[in-house]
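Practice problem: Dehydrogenase
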Amino acid sequence: MSRPRQLRAALIGLGAMGRNHARVINALDGVGLVGVLDPVATTGAPHDVPILPDLDRLLETRPDYAVVACPTAMHEEVGLRLAEAGVHALIEKPLAPSAEAGQRLVDAFESRGLIGAVGHIERYNPSLQSLRSRLEAGELGDVYQVVTRRQGPFPGRISDVGVVMDLATHDIDLTAWVTGREYADVAARTVSRSGRPHEDMVSVVAALDGGIVANHLVNWLSPMKERSTVITGERGCFVADTLTADLTFYANAAVGTEWEALRAFRGVAEGDMIRYAIAKREPLLVEHERFRDAVAGESADIVTLRQGLRTVEVAAAVIESARSGAVVPCGLSRVG
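Answer key — structure tokens:
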């Protein structure tokens, strides 16, 4: 679809993720990168895009929207300035370091009618896109359990939050999104073994609406990288590997028994296994395409700030549960 003019995009933060954003924006149809804000970077922006030292200078480039890829602790300050200037924003996950800060961002963008989105990139992973469609079509029947494993070495770029806010927010968001269910409560345990002030391992047991059980194991302490989502239900289980974007279905097979005492137990056995052929586009590119379309006034599937706030609320409940040793309810954000 042709657009009336090229959108002007700005980028805030030129770290590891910021450089990926710059690469994708530079190749994005209908968008031009007009400026990058990073107070320490001197090289790295594509095609001689100016690297600017402060937000005032960046706003002078008159961007239509900005991608916020700076540390999480800065999201609120930067996001509020963008909202005040009337600039739409795609904010990297997590939305904010606290639910209170996230709520202020939601209010600032919604009150001005601005488009705000959160970079929960796993929603655009081809394996999870296919999985969600199949769950919505009823291919699994009733969903019983969601189990995620997200582990690997510590990334040196993370300094301001622990593994719950940085990595586990992926699993919280994707679990609520693929199942269409809200988190009801969480119980969690964390450990810190790397000498940092924040947790680097978490184990979570959660209850979702409708009786679904979720388990999340996340850490920065493993020498191997794993990104696995297993959803078990009435007709079998789906296994999504978001590193390879593969989706596999393991079907239940009917098991008959002549043993009277066991007839009341509805057991299952291994049936057919199917690995689906899925078109695999880069999730970050799809994320940018959807946000571009939303800013251009077209209907687009984005992760709204309010959805990002809900994920921060659940993550905060996980941290509180680990601190208190109690099961913590996941309160809902203010509707507005």
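Discussion: The chain has a mean pLDDT of 91. Students who identified this feature from the tokens alone can consider the problem solved.
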